[in-house]
Design a protein that fits this description.
The chain is an alpha/beta fold and 290 residues long. The chain contains 11 helices and 7 strands. Helix 1 crosses helix 2, helix 4 crosses helix 5 and helix 6 packs across helix 8.
Length: 290
């Protein structure tokens, strides 16, 4: 039997229970939004991407932050001053090129620890790098602009950086190692809406296996950009969740029509690993050189 889910999917397999269904992650959906041709190269054709400094930084800092929560001894943090807390938390991070980010993270965590203690809430997350899977049905008419020929079952998968519990509610959190720009607000809300949907569609058994309670609602989401010392929290936005659900039919409509066109924009495309094989990029680059 084939694997359960895949990006190399076609609509002819939709009714065969022995064949994999379409896999959708936050990253694959984001890539499709960014450029349909890039999505085809990366996810369908499995062409390798260049490893950028930003990608490397993201992996290292994410792993270090995850390890911090796994290793930190909260009992030793009692009765320390804010400065002492910062130094104590900083000792859990590695000595590497990203110390400037760890400084900001340690200071942020020291402030958050003090607020947690004074408020009587838990400092540690209830979930740390939680991987979840879910089945989700995309309706034929979920997006009138992209009507489908039928309903489809798809597989959602993702890793939620952190989940906190406060007053019987869940807060989901995302770490970003880039620089914050106000223009990223809509994108961040879309990503958080994806994680909220993922948790809500995962089976109760899988939620419990991760040490979580499937009956506790997610009421807030937040994100942290240590490179900009920027943290933002808000109540979950219904509009962002609705907008997210309309993205799935757009992706499936591209599979139905086998149509993944390029959208060339130089300032965007110069960061793409596939410029050398993208017809739109090659054509526009020749025109610009001319």
């Amino acid at each position: 039997m084939n694997e359960e889910y895949t990006y190399q999917w076609n609509i002819e397999n939709a009714d065969d229970p022995d064949l994999p269904i379409l896999k959708i992650t936050k990253s694959s959906l984001g890539a499709f939004d960014w450029c349909k041709k890039q999505y085809e190269f990366q996810y369908i054709e499995r062409r390798p991407q260049d490893t950028s400094e930003a990608m490397l930084k993201g992996t290292i800092v994410h792993n270090s932050y995850e390890d911090f929560y796994r290793q930190v001894d909260i009992e030793k943090a009692e009765n320390l001053s804010n400065e002492e807390l910062t130094d104590y938390f900083m000792a859990y991070f590695p000595v590497d090129d990203y110390g400037y980010l760890y400084d900001t993270i340690a200071s942020f965590e020291a402030d958050r620890y003090e607020k947690a203690v004074s408020s009587g809430i838990s400092f540690l997350p209830i979930g740390n790098e939680i991987r979840l899977n879910a089945r989700y049905t995309v309706g034929q008419n979920d997006n009138p602009k992209y009507p489908l020929t039928r309903d489809y079952n798809v597989h959602l998968q993702g890793i939620i950086d952190r989940i906190f519990e406060e007053n019987g509610k869940y807060i989901i959190m995302e770490l970003k190692t880039g620089v914050w720009k106000d223009s990223r607000m809509s994108k961040m809300r879309s990503e958080m809406a994806y994680y909220k949907l993922l948790m809500e569609e995962a089976s109760p058994e899988e939620i419990r296996e991760q040490g979580l309670d499937p009956d506790i609602p997610i009421t807030h989401w937040c994100w942290f950009y240590p490179d900009s010392n920027f943290f933002y929290i808000e109540q979950c936005k219904r509009g962002s969740q609705t907008a997210l659900q309309k993205k799935f039919p757009k992706l499936l409509e591209a599979y139905e029509n086998e149509n993944f066109p390029a959208s060339y924009y130089y300032k965007k495309c110069i960061h793409c690993s596939y410029m050398g094989i993208c017809d739109a990029a090659i054509e526009n680059q020749l025109f610009e050189d001319w």
